[in-house]
Design goal:
phosphopantothenoylcysteine decarboxylase activity; eight-stranded mixed beta sheet; Flavin_trans-like; transmembrane; membrane; binds ligand PMT; FMN; Rossmann fold; alpha/beta; 21 strands
Length: about 400
């Protein structure tokens, strides 16, 4: 499972750091390519040189050790890895991870990496049970980070309790059992997938527009996971602040009609189309070509809106045998009922419904929860998790049905 895998090992400052040396040896024996990053505190317990000799790689400690001008080291390190393991993970580093703090090489690279993350905590029993630590671990678990539970046994403090780092062989075995590279089966190999994302903009004048709060996160997460599952992915995106996921071909658009044009250019050659974008239903009939000036003695002005094309509906009517069309439905009430109506009206194969009245999910949020509705009448409620994890769940379910 780990043969040829690029594994980043993050060592933080606890007495169990010595066990990380043995763990790194085991990874190398498994055929993994290993690079190590350490916090300054970890260096108090074991020497970076020992890891360097084991891995034959420079050990990263200082964020500003930028000796290669062609890269930014912590981003380069983060992007290189296919798996990130924090061993031992102190309460301090876990707290920083849970709160997005990036104040040293380890936490900066961990914030930047998109690789699956496994945390192997080791600390005093009372620190492990402290509500703050429990809260931080729960938060990270919700975001899809994996944990290897500490073992019960004799602690460095001189008494027994929960908090020991399990033996390195045990940690390795548990990581293997997580089956993190399961997606390598690439069930979407040979498939071409089109995904739309973000909120379209409809111009009022050169400096103003009508839009919505879609961040693109859900669409980008689906695109990223589809690539990992072997698909060729074309992402038609409204402008977002998000980085383009690795391996995804992207085309940017502004308006609903711009999105329609690009989607139709590609649709005949794709196997699966997923419309995640929040597309404006209406546009301004006559956008001004110059900035609209304030009229001093008028309290109201009127904008006339006209209907935009319904791209999803168009795909539903154009789709040929073998093509699957999937839409999202953002609803604030009667979510399932309205989503079912969309399934029929738009001739989609699936509608993925979400309740956007819940501020903790949906537009702009990092977490999301959806129900997948199929034209064959199934309703699958997925758990509330990060958009990255949800993307995997959505694909898993869609693939089972395709
Ligand atoms: O981008 P994020 O911040 O991550 O948020 C994710 C999301 C909330 C945007 C996403 O989960 C979502 O719900 N996307 C659909 C938003 C939407 O416009 O829903 P709708 O119910 O208005 O439209 C139904 C479907 O028709 C959608 O697939 C939409 O892309 C499509 N549509 C809508 C209007 C239109 N003119 N053409 C379309 O193709």
């Amino acid at each position: 499972m780990l043969n040829q895998k690029k594994v980043a090992v993050y060592v933080t400052g606890g007495i169990a750091a010595y066990k990380a040396l043995l763990f790194v040896r085991l990874l190398i024996k498994e055929g993994a390519q290993v690079k190590v990053a350490m916090t300054q505190s970890a260096c108090q317990f074991v020497s970076p040189l020992t890891f360097q000799v084991l891995t034959k790689e420079k050990v990263m400690v200082d964020t500003f050790d930028e000796n290669d001008p062609s890269v930014v080291q912590h981003i380069h390190f983060a992007d290189w890895s296919e798996l990130a393991i924090v061993i031992p993970a102190t309460a301090n580093t876990i707290a920083k991870m849970a709160n997005g703090i990036a104040d040293n090489f380890v936490t900066s690279a961990l914030l930047a990496t998109t690789a699956p993350k496994v945390i192997v905590p080791a600390m005093n029993e009372h620190m492990w049970e402290n509500p703050a630590t429990v809260r931080n671990c729960t938060q990270l678990q919700k975001e899809g980070v994996h944990f290897i539970e500490p073992a019960v046994g004799f602690l460095a403090e001189g008494y027994s309790g929960k908090g020991r780092l399990p033996e390195p062989e045990e940690v390795l075995q548990q990581i293997k059992e997580l089956n993190l590279f399961e997606q390598e089966e690439q069930p979407l190999l040979g498939k071409k997938v089109l995904i739309t994302a973000g909120g379209t903009k409809e111009r009022i004048d050169p400096v103003r527009y009508i839009s919505n709060d879609s961040s693109g996160k859900m669409g980008y997460a689906l695109a990223e996971d589809a690539v990992k599952k072997g698909a060729e992915v074309i992402l038609i995106s409204a402008t977002t602040a998000l980085p383009v996921p690795k391996g995804v071909k992207i085309e940017y658009v502004e308006s609903a009609r711009g999105m329609q044009e690009k989607v139709l250019n590609h649709f005949s050659s794709v196997d699966i189309a997923i419309m995640v974008a929040a597309v404006s239903d209406y546009r301004v009939k006559e956008p001004a070509t110059q900035k609209i000036k304030k009229i001093d003695d008028e309290d109201e002005i009127t904008l006339t809106l006209v209907k935009n094309p319904d791209i999803l509906k168009q795909l539903g009517s154009l789709k040929k045998e073998g093509q699957t069309v999937i839409g999202f439905a953002a609803e604030t009430h009667q979510v399932i009922e309205f989503a079912k109506q969309k399934l029929v009206k738009k001739n989609a194969d699936f509608i993925i419904a979400n309740d956007v009245s819940d501020q903790s999910i949906g537009f702009g949020a990092d977490m999301h929860q959806v129900t997948i509705l199929s034209k064959t009448g199934e309703e699958i409620l997925l758990p509330k998790v990060s958009k990255q994890l949800l993307a995997k769940e959505i694909w898993k379910n869609l693939i089972q049905h395709l």
